[in-house]
Amino acid sequence: MVSNIGKGMMALRGRWLICLTAGGQLAVCLFLSGILIREGYNAGIGILSAVLCVALFLGAVFLVRGSSEIVAKEDWDSIFLCWRLQRHDFNNHLQIIYTMIQLGKSEKALEYINTIKRENEVFSTICRLENPRIISEVSDIILSARQEGISIFLDIPDDFNPEKISQSTIKSLREQVRALMAELKSVPGERDLNISYTEPDKVKISSNALEGRTIII
């Protein structure tokens, strides 16, 4: 996930660099075209070259703009927030484990560590999602669910292809999960949400606490 996110970040950072490079190429081409026209070369060739340069420049700008919008700033903010919260939780866990060890409660410390591992497996699982927008949405779901005391379980195969998940599917996932979480607030006992990406282009949401209700998007 780190490598894929890194590539995405480099793409975003390179937006203005690409525009600047394309703009420089355009300026040089227009300058050379002007020289050709002034020196008496075929004016039609110079004008045609200038028009093609402008078209290529505008095409590059719109292409970069369109590709950069695939990963909105809000998505990166959400991912970074999730990482910061994990770091904060990690520091708290270290303090608790250290206190248990100091008090000679080594078995309690081991139990606590195993509990942390189970709770944080979900963050390791989202690494397979690769697409920053999907990671952002799922991270928001995980954090919101934890605030409500709802356990989240993810089922993501190793051969998961994020390109098969459409933007409309991501939007529907957010809406359906919010609706289910609202229902789960009134459910006593253990509450859960299971999100599965096992089908090629679909997402399955289910909850044992809601009598096994399943929604396929």
Automatic annotation (TrEMBL):
GO MF annotation list: phosphorelay sensor kinase activity
Say which domain of life the source belongs to. Bacteria
Query: Which InterPro entries does the annotation name?
Result: Sig_transdc_His_kin_SpoOB, SPOB_a
Q: Which UniProt keywords apply?
A: Kinase, Membrane, Phosphoprotein, Transferase, Transmembrane, Transmembrane helix
Write the protein's name: Sensor kinase SpoOB-type protein
Where, by residue number, does the polypeptide cross the bilayer?
16-37, 43-64
Which Pfam family, giving just one, matches this sequence?
SPOB_a
Q: Which residues form the SpoOB alpha-helical domain?
A: 76-128
